[in-house]
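Data deposition worksheet. Section B asks for the primary sequence of the deposited chain exactly as it was used as input, without tags or linkers unless they were present during the calculation. Section C holds the resulting structure in token form. Section D is free text for depositor observations; keep each observation to a single sentence. Incomplete worksheets are returned to the depositor.
Section A, Depositor: J.P.
Section B:
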Amino acid sequence: MKKERNQFWTLRYTLINVTYFMVFCWIHAYASVFLLDKGFSNTMIGITLALANILSVILQPFIAGIIDKPGRFTNRNVSMISTLLILIGSVILLSTDNNKVVIFLIFALIYMIQMIYQPVITAMNFEYAQAGCNIYYGLARGLGSVGFAIASFFTGKAIGSYGVDILMKLNIIILSAALIALYFFKKPESAAVSEISEDNGDTPVAHNNVFDFIRTYPMFMLFVLGAVCFFFSHNAINDYIIQIITPLGGDEADMGRAIFLAAVLELPTMSFINKVMKKVSCSRLLIISGIAFMIKTFLMFIADNMITVYISQAMQLFAYAVFIPVSAYYVNMVMEEYDQVKGQAYITCSITLGGVFSSLLCGRILDTMGPRFMLLVSLIVSIAGVIIAFIALRKDMV
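Section C:
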């Protein structure tokens, strides 16, 4: 009976991850494809994505601070509100007549919202785990990546047949399913009552002020800086992959296959990461992931055909696929209970800030210097990230 209960919680949490990352694919991975079709230049795409990322970096710790406090704004409720807002935004984008101002504002808004509640979904796993709902996080998160992979594989062909508006139509369908999944993903009332009864006044102090948080976790925040560098190169490749592969003879279908390969390879790593962490420390694994990000960027830089592009994408097995689950567990290990959502938010902020800087710089570099020079800059930044992360984590590498 206990085994069936565990599988049930994992199944429902998996559905939340799968729907989230399918929509993530259509909003983030296909952002350039969508906006280019709407008449945006590479520079304007960079500005749009940078604005969305900057706003999400500002708001993520604020939202996390609210969730860390007891009240109505739980991880589940914030996820439901965010999903509903993206659904409404997708309807607006589908119905607008190529009004660039409206597209700019709404697309930036839904891009931002989705980044904001990504750490909330991660924190929800640990919240429910503490309440006795045993969830196999690595498997659920890995299957989320499979959802992303499946979406990317078929989307390239779908755009060729039906145009880019198919992205928003798919968003509406999957977001509706996500709302249903979140609505029924309720923590057992007995667990909630137990948590209230155990509150004896010795509540841990929440470090909601950013400077207080930095003083409390200085090495963690230095690692976040290193991770920003990892995700500068990661986002540069993801956001502008169509521009990278076009000179190599690639098209939207090749893009879909490249994204599919990277995403589907995340599943085996994420599924077995718990066993790996029993033998290798989180700090060592995070350094390994940083090195893999660097190698991935190097391979993309030297690529002169799609085969090398696919090999580069295969490095996702050791880069993103290691970083995401291990960083989540690392936060849970080093943070006080009432700082854990903020810790997850700062990890996502590293991803987001990487997107900010890559969007601001890489869009302009593409328009002036081309994709090869953009990848060279990304490689240099990723090398700096490995050095910073090593300094931040070296004491914990045992």
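Section D:
The mean pLDDT is 86.
Residues 129 and 135 are 7 Å apart (CA to CA).
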